[in-house]
Amino acid sequence: MKNKVFLAPSLLFIILIFLWEIILIINETPHYIIPKPSLVFITIINEWNSLISAMLITLSVTLLALLMAVILGFAIAVIISQFKIFEISFMPLTVVLQVTPIIAIAPLIIILIDNTFIAALICAWLVAFFPILSNTLVGLKSIDHSLVDLFFLYKANKFQKLLFLQIPSALPFFLSGLKISAGLSLIGAIVAEFVTGIGGSSSGLAYIIIESSYRLETAKMFAALILIALTGIIIYVFIHLISKITLKNWHESEKIKEL
Amino acid sequence: MITNLNKKNKKNKNILAELDQVTKIFTNGEVVLKNLNLKIFKNDFITLLGKSGCGKTTILKILCGLLKTTEGKVNWPTSTFKNSEKNPANLSVVFQDPNLLPWLNVFDNIFLPLKLNKKNRKKNYQTVMNFIELVGLTDFKDYFPSQLSGGMKMRVAIARALITKPKVILMDEPFGALDEITRFKLNNDLLNIYKKYKLTIIFITHSIYESAYLSNKIALISDRPASINEIIYLDKDEEKNEDYYLSTDYLNKCKKISKKFNYYNEVANEE
Ligand SMILES: Nc1ncnc2c1ncn2[C@@H]1O[C@H](COP(=O)(O)OP(=O)(O)OP(=O)(O)O)[C@@H](O)[C@H]1O
Ligand SMILES: [Mg+2]
């Protein structure tokens, strides 16, 4: 059973790569239109140094933005949940910012902020922030009424209720927000790099894609693309691991299903 | 309708809690309690016996302040309860559902009331362990609620209610989910605790047998809207043990209660 989970998709993946190679060879497609997987692989090895440093830049923008989103999203959700007036006043604003596509806001941010790294950070943060804020807020508010009764009977004060009841109840919601935000912050970082174009010293993977597209180095474009996907996977696995560890004993979503 | 209220000659200073002409109407218009009077005296072990849905849980929630009355008053003459919305520390409630915190293990669930009372975890380790042992869960102290059976969860809830050493315990069908053997054991444990600490226990059940075994007063609750049909006084000083459980005395007692219970139901149906 467990083997199937890994075997089936890996097999499919290998078959697809193989077909890709074969079809290109048969059609004699030039490498600057679509490169063969083997060429992409060779490019990754040859360009390893520049690719990996670009990947580190993108990864650090993404993770830093995510961290900021976690801290601010969580803190603001806690504050809002304690005072109804804040929720009423803040939420419409957050919705406006959330529904406006980041690609439309990014150029403004880049004009406003000279430092490209910080500008990218803000773009990535902007998209990662809202899922965490709104999910945590929902979690903080959806507490089991009978548990609230229990805390009432034991004379828990507001702070104890927040710390021992609301925040733990909100944890699964927060984590599902985090899963969404992790993907979005990578998108935010990439969008920012695209909009900035030439990034000077701080040039991430998206910059490599643009640069190599100008030079028709299609294989390098693919190499960068693969590393972007890899970055996404690393973040995804990391977040899922956190979620598994924190929830494994009590929440339905991560409970081990006994057969 | 026959109402046999508490005898007037009882001294008032022994009254622990009193429901005075209490009416409860929920927001959907459902009249659940109507002009209900009930006096609870110190050291009572009183069971509220009534059919499912008649309003027993509602009575209990009103008693402990979780629900407000629509009309009428709740008095706790001798406790701080009357002055504040909050319950005095000497009152514990065991709800119909165990209501455990799913992210805490058995130990920490039982420790919770002490934690909310700002008690030190290390200093109270042995106290908590004693109560875990009392409900027979020593081997399961690190288990999470999702890893426990229904009956085990209920036992955690009972230990949690006892840990604050309350003077008054309100119990809402606490043993409903348990098997006969565990139930019998816990019934006896409860009686021991009741005697040892001179508790007052308000116990909800729809089992005539359980009410006859445990309590010294049984309040028969009418169907919705709930009021007290009669309070049956039972002999307080009987030795409760396995012999008693199997005696004809006990059986006769159950019969007597059952007859009364059915009588009121028939009267209600004829109306
Ligand atoms: N929040 C509520 N809103 C409206 N009606 C309610 C509410 N809570 C309880 N009721 C109604 O009050 C009545 C009595 O409920 P209660 O829970 O007190 O019954 P019970 O005697 O404890 O029953 P059981 O033995 O099954 O637990 C029921 O008919 C129920 O529908
Ligand atoms: Mg009930």
Structural summary, described in words:
The complex is a heterodimer of chains A (259) and B (271). Chain A contains ten helices and no strands. Chain A is mainly alpha-helical and 259 residues long. Chain A folds into two domains: 1-30; 35-254, MetI-like fold, CATH 1.10.3720. The longest helix of chain A is centred in the last third of the chain and has 39 residues, at 158-196. Chain B is of the alpha/beta class. Chain B is 34% helix and 21% strand. Chain B has eight helices and nine strands. Chain B has helices at 56-63, 106-116, 125-134, 150-162, 180-196, 208-214, 242-245, 248-270, and strands spanning 15-25, 31-41, 45-49, 71-75, 91-94, 168-172, 200-205, 217-221, 228-233. In chain B, helix 2 (106-116) crosses helix 3 and helix 6 (208-214) packs across helix 8 (248-270). The interface between A and B is medium-sized, with 20 and 27 residues. The complex binds adenosine-5'-triphosphate and magnesium ion. Adenosine-5'-triphosphate (ATP) binds next to helix 1 of chain B. Magnesium ion binds at residues 56-57, 96, 172 of chain B.
List the topology elements.
The complex is a heterodimer of chains A (259) and B (271).
Chain A: H1 2-27, H2 37-46, H3 48-82, H4 84-99, H5 102-112, H6 116-141, H7 145-153, H8 158-196, H9 205-214, H10 218-247
Helix pairs in contact in A: 2-10, 3-4, 3-6, 3-8, 3-9, 3-10, 5-6, 5-8, 6-8, 8-9, 8-10, 9-10
Chain B: E1 15-25, E2 31-41, E3 45-49, H1 56-63, E4 71-75, E5 91-94, H2 106-116, H3 125-134, H4 150-162, E6 168-172, H5 180-196, E7 200-205, H6 208-214, E8 217-221, E9 228-233, H7 242-245, H8 248-270
Parallel strand pairs in B: 3-7, 3-8, 5-6, 6-7
Antiparallel strand pairs in B: 1-2, 1-4, 8-9
Helix pairs in contact in B: 2-3, 2-4, 6-8
The structure holds adenosine-5'-triphosphate (ATP) and magnesium ion.
